[in-house]
Amino acid sequence: MDSVKIAVIGLGYVGLPLARLFSTKYKTVGFDLNQARVDTLMAGHDATLEISDELLQDAIRNNGFVCTTKLEDIKSCNFYVVAVPTPVDVNNRPDLKPLWGASETVGKVISRGDVVVYESTVYPGVTEEECLPVVERVSGLKLNIDFFAGYSPERINPGDKEHTVEKIKKVTSGSTPEIADLVDKVYNSVLVNGTHKAPSIKVAEASKIIENSQRDVNIAFMNELAKIFNAMGIDTGDVIEAASSKWNFIKLKPGLVGGHCISVDPYYLIQKAQVYGVLPRVMSAARRLNDGMGDYVANQVIKLMNKKGVLVKDAHILLLGITFKENCPDIRNTKIVDIYTTLKEYTSNIAVYDPWADIEKVRHEYGIEIINQLPSPSKELFDAVILCVAHDVFHALDIRALLAYENGVVYDVKGFLDRNIIDGRL
User: Fold this and answer.
1) Residues 115 and 183: beta-carbon distance below 8 Å
2) Relative orientation angle of helices 201-232 and 293-307, to the nearest 10 degrees
3) Which of 36, 83, 256, 340 could bridge across to 10 with cysteines, CB 3.0–4.6 Å?
4) 409-412 and 27-31 as β-strands: parallel, antiparallel, unpaired?
5) pLDDT digit string (tens) for 87-123?
6) Which of 67, 77, 261, 388 is catalytic?
7) Residue 261 among the catalytic residues
8) Element (H, E) at 9
């Protein structure tokens, strides 16, 4: 264990917190292809805000943590951890290009006796069937003869300051029983709540993907209930509160499903299931339902505006929040964009206010201009305000004061606002 030297490949929401944690016990190097990202980190700041400047600077100053874009800087490592994204393409098919690229990187630096562990979320079989053959081809080494492998799925929850990486119980696995033990010991040595050692890499891969798929299906059920009860004129929140008085009712809420995990990962299992001749109807239906909720919210707002006599065409509308979840800057796969796109068919006067989001990143990713400060009420008032994201800073807003008329519409996507000031909620 004392000889373990770790390289973490991919320094995003997953890789950086893990690398920083490993650096508290092992010599650790972080590797990323993005030079600007590496430069910012070495200057002591994490733009994702997952790691505080204090923690990052301490890791650099006292633990010798280094971030780099140079392959030669990780050649001396012997325990490689791959933490790159696993996106889907425009047709929701798994895109393994980041994993293939990271596997090529590992193949260029790995030596005899070394271990490579994958953390990226994948369908069962990707590590052994897609990634490790790339490492073998590039390195000229053979798995379980010259080098070894493991899989430990990430469980990072962006913006969550309670369930931080050191407190998360991790699933581990290895390509041989001995390597499974080694991988388990390395992770166990830095985790407060320990690990669960899976019997195989495929089991570990499957465990991760069903974590997110289960949540997707559960949220889809609540979204379907919200549609039913809204059509019936019954408040969904009231129904959930009443039902949750039973001891075994699972209390969940409807909502938009965005981000890089729940809204993406199920497609990996859906695609792989079809290869085996299984049509995953429940998961597929859940994905379709959840993907349509942004459009549904926009149409609910339009319906309310029409009922209250507020002209929708060329209306001035304010969206509060664009990140995919509260109190973090993560805009990956945010479904607020779907609300914006539907409303854009009726009006171009849409303001998006989010003090957490990066203006340039939103412009680059979605082509939407956002603001980080609200305009003065004396300069602009709105016909409708939609609370899209439950950022804490929105608690202080006098939202009805932002309306141009008494009959303006306030819609609450998150069940976040005082019910006395809203006209509708999901």
Assistant:
1) yes
2) 10
3) 83
4) unpaired
5) 988 888 889 999 999 999 999 999 999 999 999 999 9
6) 261
7) yes
8) strand 5-9
